[in-house]
Amino acid sequence: MSTGRRALVCLPTYDERENLAPVVAAIHAAAPEVDVLVVDDDSPDGTGRVADELAARDPRVKVLHRAAKEGLGRAYLAGFAWALERGYGLVLEMDADFSHDPAYLPTLLAAAEDADLVLGSRYVPGGGTSNWGLGRRLVSRGGSAYARAILGVQVRDLTGGFKAWRASTLADVPFDGIHAGGYVFQIETTFRASRAGARVREVPIVFSDRRIGQSKMSRRILVEALLIVINLWWEEQRGRLRRKPAEEHTGK
What we know:
The protein has 252 residues and is α/β, with parallel strands linked by helices. 46% of the residues lie in helices and 17% in strands.
């Protein structure tokens, strides 16, 4: 990693007590140079206490306690702000449940040397999913294809959440007013970064089902994502319509 490119892995948690210590250990086995920020939403199972114990033993582990469960997107936004305030050069997103294999971290870090946003992608050559049923594969692929078609973004895996952001890109992307639900958060942040001119690169990963606990995906989250994608498209069209009279008036 280049000098001045300190990397921070943002690890949002809610009831991940059994996964947390093993995943932090796996992160540091794959990328010893990175720091880990556990963003815990007051998990009732004591995940926050486990995070504090890890931080007490290892200065590379940091903890951000939040007062209540507000969802994945809000947790990431809090983590992004924390990282930017402390001067990190790269900020990574990943799940705490081993669905994102920490072994891919060196690949994401290397790709970030010449990209503004790196996506761990299931839908480029070499990528894929493991232990998924047909229904879940169809929902995931269909969700990415739907968002890609509506928004006109040339990214294969718009719903993926294993990412490496250049801090300067995070600082420039307009996150005000973002719809920070879990599933749609990943679509919207990649969309906004792309529209802001970020160089987006996809690298292949294999995504696996979580090892312990229940998936947090729900029908409500999927419906929310479908509706917000339409809303994002309409917001962009409305902005273009507002700009058109001004451009005609100035002769541009």
